[in-house]
Every structure is written in structure tokens, then in C-alpha cells.
Write a structure and sequence with these properties.
Length: 305
């Protein structure tokens, strides 16, 4: 296993030939008067490289078998595997990858039942990326791994489906887009509202003007209210998990079952359970039906934990 100091040095936003960009503000400098009308609109640098199409070089035939791997076969990752298996008979899951030996059994069983043989179980995703036979990966890890795992995959010539929230930070999302354009790989994210026909009807209805002028939108997420969080004490990591690899690009901290199993409650790994699990869908849907408006001029946040 690569030493952590070297590991972090090698992987932190490590897209070869890509410089770090400013935050995704989409705005220029404010003039002396500071009025909104005088804020200069600019196109963020990562967007200038977006291509309308990719070259067809090294593309397989549509009749070729598609070789896949699942990175992070937890409960939702296993659900994605099971749904993928019924979509097309012309595919194969070659790998199931997780840093925790206790996870992935249900995904392996489902894959074996469908294709008649077990996939290879690995703990290090880089072994998957080194395999030239693999065409694409499904990434369903905790969110702090989404950006780096996706970029590594595209650098290795793999197409990517990555679950929401797509990234932990805005900067990671920019790097993922840059990587998709540079390596000409498909990058699809798990905000499935954009695949639902009824949402297109809502978007078209609003665009037609029949609803009238939209001046404000309130987005709601139905939740059960505050849930007490009982943090568990730090303990030695179980022998079944590579805790250093689980942390990956996140800060190094001692193992605790709370971080491992309830990672949605930690900013180092997630945008929060309410935002990351449900509200992100509602926000994305609101933006979609409004025609994906530009970045906001300001953002205000208030709330509890």
C-alpha cells in the first residue's frame, strides 16, 4: 500500500496537464459602484473546453460486450448493479471493488446469478483501472471519493457513471468535466430527474409562458425532522477494512464506526444527510425545469447542525 503522504501528494486534484481553477463563480470583478448590472459575465475556464462531440477513435462496436466494474458495492451500489443487469444481456461485471471485505457479497451473488460466474473481488480501485478490458465503472463510494475515483477512471480510458452528490466540492466537479473532455470519456451522474419524461413536460410548460413569469421558486424537501446523532468513540480499525484507503483524499483521522457507517453526518465525506440524500434532487429538478439558470449572484445559508 502506498504511504499516505505520497498517496495524498499524488492524487490531490491530480489531473495531468490541468491547472487549478478559480471557484465556480461565473462572475467577473465588481466595479467601484458594485451594482449587480455592472458585474461582468464571464464563461468559467472549465466550460470553454466542453466539446459537442468526441472522436470515434478507439471506439468499440455497439455489438461488443460491455465490461463493467462496481466501485463501492454498498446497499445503493448493489441496487445499481441489480438494475444494470436487467438492462442489457450484452454486458459483464468483471470486478466488484470495496475497501471493506464485509461489503459486496450481495452484489457478487446477483452478478453470479445473472452471468453464471463470479466477478473478481478487489479492494484497490486502481487494479480495476489498470485492466484494459474494462470499458466503464459505476462509482457508488462515499462522496469524498467521487471526484478522484472518476478522474482516475477517465484517465485510464473508462467511461463513468457516478452517483450523487457528484462531488464534495465545486472544484472537484470542474476537474471532472475537464477530465471528461481531455480524455473524451462519458461522464454521467446520478441525478435521475433529468431522465424522467414528466419533468421535460414541466420544463416545456414553463418555457411556453403559460404559467406566467416566474419570479420566485421555493424548493421543499420532506424530512422527518432532527434526528439525534450518537457519535461512537474512536477504536482501532477492523482487520476487514483498509481505513487509510477508505479515507483516501480526506484528512487522516482514527477509525470510528460513526465515520465509517454514518459518513453522511461528516463534512469531510458528505454534503450532509438531508442535502445529499434528498434535497439535491429537488434543487436539481428546480434548476432543470427553469432551464438551468446561471449561477446565483449571492447565496445565504442559515440552519442548525
Amino acid at each position: 500500500m502506498m504511504k499516505r503522504k505520497k498517496f495524498i501528494k499524488n492524487v490531490s486534484f491530480g489531473v495531468a496537464g490541468m491547472s487549478l481553477l478559480n471557484a465556480c463563480s461565473g462572475r467577473g470583478n465588481v466595479t467601484d459602484t458594485g451594482t449587480a448590472s455592472q458585474i461582468k459575465e464571464i464563461v468559467p475556464a472549465y466550460r470553454t473546453g466542453i466539446k459537442s462531440s468526441f472522436s470515434m477513435a478507439n471506439r468499440g462496436s455497439a455489438s461488443d460486450k460491455v465490461i463493467l466494474a462496481i466501485i463501492g458495492p454498498g446497499s445503493w451500489g448493489t441496487n445499481l448493479v441489480q438494475n444494470t443487469l436487467v438492462l442489457n444481456n450484452n454486458l459483464e461485471f468483471k470486478y466488484v471493488c470495496d475497501v471493506d471485505d464485509t461489503r459486496g457479497g450481495a452484489a457478487i451473488d446477483a452478478i453470479e446469478k445473472k452471468q453464471g460466474y463470479k466477478p473478481v473481488r478487489v479492494s484497490d480501485m486502481r487494479k480495476v483501472y489498470d485492466d484494459k478490458d474494462v470499458d466503464g465503472v459505476i462509482i457508488a463510494t462515499p462522496q469524498h471519493w467521487h471526484g478522484l475515483a472518476s478522474i482516475w477512471a477517465m484517465q485510464a480510458g473508462k467511461d463513468v457513471y457516478v452517483e450523487k452528490c457528484v462531488t464534495l466540492t465545486i472544484g472537484e466537479g470542474q476537474k471532472m468535466i475537464e477530465a471528461a473532455m481531455k480524455y473524451e470519456r462519458i461522464l454521467q451522474c446520478g441525478t435521475q430527474n433529468r431522465s424522467a419524461p414528466y419533468n421535460y413536460k414541466a420544463r416545456d410548460y414553463i418555457k411556453s409562458g403559460e404559467l406566467g413569469q416566474v419570479v420566485a421558486v421555493e424548493v421543499m424537501e420532506l424530512d422527518t425532522g432532527p434526528v439525534p446523532f450518537m457519535k461512537k468513540e474512536d477504536t482501532p480499525a477492523p482487520e476487514t477494512i483498509d481505513w487509510d484507503m477508505w479515507l483516501g483524499p480526506a484528512p487522516k483521522v482514527p477509525y470510528s464506526v460513526s465515520r465509517n457507517k454514518s459518513w453522511h453526518y461528516y463534512w469531510d465525506y458528505s454534503g450532509g444527510p438531508e442535502l445529499s440524500l434528498g434535497a439535491i434532487h429537488q434543487m436539481d429538478l428546480a434548476r432543470f425545469v427553469l432551464g438551468d439558470p446561471h449561477f446565483p449572484k449571492s447565496v445565504y445559508c442559515a440552519g442548525g447542525r
